[in-house]
Specification:
400 residues; alpha/beta; Rossmann fold; nine-stranded mixed β-sheet; seven-stranded mixed β-sheet; 22% strand; binds benzoic acid; Peripla_BP_I; signal; ABC transporter permease; BCAA_transport
Length: 400
């Protein structure tokens, strides 16, 4: 569990000025109004710092802070002040937690979160208050679908995207009968929807959709059920600590060499050290991979390893790109975050020079990006090919 554990414990250091406004802390004094030109830009991290997604939240914050540090600690000519809330990956607490950042701390931008269910609460609060929101992971389709908005941006993916890419790969390989297995919440369900759309369009059939509640890791009964169905393959969505456990349980049940296991890349990203031999050879699809050859990625990986004594993963990339996107907006308005229309316009038009490869945003503000087919080799998710080039989420229901 070494790599996974060290991520969980890694401190997100390098703050220019950090205010720890953790959830549950006693009432804070009223903060001054946001965005006064000349003052600091207030960035509110709403991320999981505890629970199965804790390592993901830390990696996102690390990536974000590293980009800011590379700019000398300023974006748009202004220093950055950080605020933090641990969202615990708990959707029930999301509106209250987001309101703390928006109303109490009066942040200029909320950067959050990881969990799709929590994201729905943040989107609601951001829309009600016209607060800039940058989503650095959660894929919930609605955020760049029916709930899209001028102030809502994402630097990660929609849940539909990586699932769709794997559906295309397995459909093209001629597989016919697939069982899916996920946590029962938006990330799992929407990944399966994307997978099914592409896979069935190529003539395959999803014969059974299995699931268990998030963040339950009692996989045994479901693994037994999958084996009894004798599919050509299984497609899964799990991430963080749950992904570590699932991959190990799958191998321990003796299915690794019997039923091919595929997933969106969260299954093996940031988890390989803990998964060890159980993960070797697994194929996944994601918008990041090891072995990319662009210079941006090379420098990013060197800097990240030097700064945090860790190898970066997709979550660190998404955090880094969230800061890059904010920088594009802040530079365009010369640090005046009250010029919201100009800020949003510049962000919407930005081309982000990401370690994953450059990307632009769709009209709904979701990355249009390449999805890689990767294969686990040692401690790496090595790129095999581009599974789908410049894949755009369909943004169904978005009126922007
Ligand atoms: C989600 O809830 O959207 C999510 C969580 C972890 C990895 C990927 C997606």
């Amino acid at each position: 569990m070494r790599r996974f554990t060290s991520r969980r414990l890694a401190p997100a250091c390098l703050a220019v000025a950090t205010v720890f406004a953790m959830a549950g802390a006693s009432a804070q004094p009223a903060a001054p109004a946001p965005a006064a030109p000349g003052g600091k830009i207030k960035v509110g991290f709403m991320l999981p710092y505890t629970g199965t997604y804790a390592a993901l939240g830390t990696a996102i914050e690390n990536g974000f802070r590293m980009y800011v540090q590379q700019q000398g600690g300023k974006l748009g000519g202004r220093d950055i002040e950080y605020f933090k809330v641990d969202d615990e990956s708990d959707p029930a607490k999301a509106p209250e937690n987001a309101t703390k950042l928006v109303k109490r701390d009066q942040v200029d931008v909320v950067v959050g979160t990881v969990h799709s269910g929590v994201q729905m609460g943040i989107v609601k609060v951001a829309k009600e208050n016209n607060t800039l929101l940058i989503i650095p992971n959660a894929g919930v389709d609605e955020a760049t679908g029916p709930l899209c908005g001028p102030n809502i941006f994402r630097t990660s993916f929609s849940n539909w995207q990586p699932g769709y890419a794997m559906g295309q790969v397995l459909g093209e390989r001629g597989l016919k009968k697939v069982v899916t297995l996920t946590w029962k919440y938006a990330a799992g369900e929407q990944s399966v929807k994307g997978f099914k759309e592409a896979f069935e369009a190529k003539g395959g059939k999803v014969v059974k959709e299995l699931n268990l509640p998030f963040p339950n890791v009692e996989f045994q009964a479901l693994i037994t059920e999958v084996a009894s169905l004798k599919p050509d393959a299984v497609f899964v969505f799990f991430a963080g600590g749950g992904a570590v456990k699932f991959v190990k349980d799958w191998a321990a049940a003796g299915l690794k060499d019997k039923i091919p296991l595929y997933g969106s890349g969260f299954l093996t990203d940031g988890t390989l050290e803990a998964q060890g031999t159980a993960a070797q050879g697994l194929e996944t699809t994601l918008h990041y991979a090891d072995g990319l050859t662009n210079p941006r990625d090379k420098n990013f990986r060197l800097d990240y390893a030097k700064t945090y004594k860790l190898q970066p993963d997709v979550y660190a990339v998404q955090g880094y790109d969230a800061a890059q996107l904010l920088a594009a907006g802040a530079t365009a308005v010369k640090g005046d975050m009250t010029r919201k229309a100009d800020l949003y316009k510049a962000m919407g038009a930005a081309r982000i020079d990401s370690p994953r490869g450059a990307f632009t945003l769709s009209k709904a503000h979701n990355p249009v990006q390449d999805f890689y087919l990767r294969k686990v080799d040692g401690r790496e998710n090595k790129v095999s090919s581009v599974a789908v080039k410049a894949l755009a989420d369909p943004a169904r229901g978005c009126r922007l």
